[in-house]
Amino acid sequence: MMPAALGLALVAATGAAGQAERVVTPSIFDPVATPAHDIRELAYLVLGICGVIFALVGGLAAYSMIRFRQRPGDEREPPQVYGSNQIELAWTVVPLLIVVVLFLATARYIYGLEGRAPAPGDLQVTIIGNQWWWEIRYPELGIVTANELHVPVSDPARPSPVFLTLQSVDVIHSFWLPQLAGKMDVIPGKTNRMWIDPQRPGLYVGQCAEYCGTQHAGMLLRVVVHSRDEFARWVSEQRAPARDDPATQAGRALFTSLACINCHTVRGTPANGVFGPDLTHLMSRSTIGAGVARNTPDTLRAWVNDPGSIKPGALMPAMRVSHQELEQLTAYLVTLR
Amino acid sequence: MSAATEAERVQISRRSWLDVLHEWVVTVDHKRLGIMYVVAGIAFLVVAGLEASLMRLQLALADNTVVSPEVFNRLFTMHGTTMVFLVGIPIVFGFGNYLVPLMIGARDLAFPRLNAFGFWVFLFGGLLLYLSYLAGDGLYGTGSAPAVGWFAYAPLTSRAFSPGNSTDFWNLAVLVTGFGTIATSVNLCATIVCLRGPGMHLGRMPMFVWTMFVVSALTLMILPPLSAAQAMLLLDRFLGAHFFDTQAGGSAVAWQHFFWFFGHPEVYVLILPGFGFVSEIIPVFSRKVLFGYPMLVAATVAIGFVGMSTWAHHMFAVGLGTALTSAFAASTMLVAIPTGVKIFNWLGTMYGGKIRFATPMLFCAAFLFQFLCAGLTGVMLGVAPFDWQLTDSYFVVAHFHFVLIGGLLFTIFAAVYYWFPKATGRMLSERLGRLHFWLFVIGFNLTFVTMHFLGVQGMPRRIYTYPADRGWETLNFITSLGVPLQILGVAVFALNLIWSLRRGRVAGDDPWDAWTLEWATTSPPPACNFDRLPVTTSRRPLWDLKHPGDPDGPHE
Questions:
Q1: What mean pLDDT is predicted for residues A138-145?
Q2: Which residues 6+ apart lie within 8 Å of B548 measured at CB?
Q3: Angstrom distance (rounded) from CA B367 to CA B276
Q4: Measured between CB atoms, which of A23, A25, A185 is closest to B318?
Q5: Are the beta carbons of A169 and A126 closer than 8 angstroms?
Q6: Phi, psi of B424 (to 5 degrees)
Q7: B166 partner at 20 to 30 Å CA-CA among A189, A301, B104, B203?
Q8: Is B250 near chain A, with CB under 8 Å?
Q9: pTM, 2 dp
Q10: Strands A162-168, A123-130: parallel, antiparallel or unpaired by DSSP?
Q11: B462–A216 C-beta distance less than 8 A
């Protein structure tokens, strides 16, 4: 038991040190990839035009309300003006011209953003929406993970976009990473595509943006943008088979004898379920429950015991194992780095 | 109030409350039905407002646990469904019911009994929706409300993902209230086409009647497709059909087309009567004739037509393809033009006038700024790439609450203050009215201006909580701070209604010195509306009476 306990303590310590609370606001005005960047450009144009209109029309309204308010004692009716063809024509045609300009700009950006097709060699990732988590597959690399998308940084001089294929196994979800791109819905029976080319390494957050049931709010997303070397290291780690630590044989045996394997896959073991997230490298992920809690041995233990205590409504059932079994299971899961 | 008049009143109202209740239940009088629509709508407004308040309490702090996710999802489903189907529609059709015959010089609607049918179907449809709280899981269970959102996207509504009967309550309630709305729309169309009084040709109809005409015609075109979709959903849920069953080749996107083909024009169904209220109130309180009446009528009809071709802008993130996305972006921006024309015409009416800021005009003034804001954020949402970021975020929540609260509800308040004297014979208190106005205008803007910023910071809609590390807490807290002010505002409004009904200043026939026909009869009007049907000589028949030396006719 000693090595396992040591491992637990170690992971707990690094978890606490490496993941101090840090505020990451996913503002659409702080883009790090071309789609979000282009959209911000267009947004500035639209905001500028609308701002001027608001100032002019709002100013005229405020002026009329102050200048033409009734003065005390003045009971005579003002002159009646029934209309004016010239003025009315002017305030119909001018907005029409503004709309034409706006539409041309909009169409240009629509075609620019949607027109891009993948080139050979571009990284392809398939995102699969599930109630209430994301499966993330790299078909060419043979990697399956969940809730945390890892991509290499794209050099603006030599762009290397990542193309995403979006599918759903149940209801409609929507894939939204505000700092990288606009939303794209994830619809059962329909395959949608989008692309991102993040240009700054770092952690970016987002979440499901289409109401998809009880835990819609608990369907969070993280994107880790790596340097090229880091990404290569991450890929090789993810492709490795699951660790098989002899010290946690008890937990492993328990895991493969319980219902866990009906829903979860741990590559290299009999566990090959597909309803829940792939756990082969569970501990390489910084969160569990699709981002609702940090991935520490404590939260993991609580999750296995009763997922609803962390994420009410989650579809994984409470495992109802004994205290000792829970410790053994947790000790095993913690080795899946 | 002297003792003698008090005694007289007791003498007159000696009928028991049962007699009074019976009179109201069996009535086919458009005025009584109109009042019942509005009162029922305001009652549902209070319920839906409390649902919203609970949601804001939950969202005031990060990781809050006031309500569970299940309860929260039911709250926003019931809030949205109630506000659209049981508050917005009945209140605007209630005003249409009350005012259209009076404004065109008719004695009642064309089909009075159909009118009563429409009201009762709406009321029981609304009660059916709320019955789900007791019986949603099936009559043997404890039950609860639907949690599929007011838009009820497939396939979340299928048996697999929404077991129990809550979704069926939603489905049937919307279907049933829809029948009531269709009945009332037929009735209003027939009335406006066939029952206009002597001299009231189409070109002389008050703007409010024009908006109700367009709204009724629009409703007849958009509600049947929604009812059809509801029937298809029923078939899916009960008979194993596969219209929206994606596991069996059905289409999730098809539901969205059906729903938004209704859902988007529905916004115009709600806001056009608001424009109608404003087009009646601003001229009277500016003491000027409505500027550019023919253009305003044209703009109203144009909004009706163009509004029916914009629905897929709710679906820009669905992946429509470049051609469709561009087409719907264009039609959406096009709607901004007739809408802008309306704002300009109201400004043209105020310009050079002598504006009296009584409570109805105060609400119209705030409406102008807020609706301008709503229109401009609407244009932003029409810019499809920008919409890919903004859709389903709090920015959209802010936008349509600016349309439906800052726009529609403010005009409804204006309309209640303006026509209450006509319906009851008593004025609402100006002091309470001003208090109501300031509480509501500050509370509303605190809540909904702030939501725009949450949206651009990446906060999605319909989430029951959010993690503290997103940095959204401060703005959410400010958003929730506006809620108590709005609750207080509505409480003052309710107090004003109750107090003024008994103690308000007696209004007389024409307290605002107005120009349309409803002010030519007594307050409240007799059952037959007019002892002798008035003859209309221009768009402002009462102006002509008051200024025989300078009638409107030659200027039109």
A1: 96
A2: none
A3: 13
A4: A185
A5: no
A6: -120, -20
A7: A189
A8: yes
A9: 0.94
A10: parallel
A11: yes
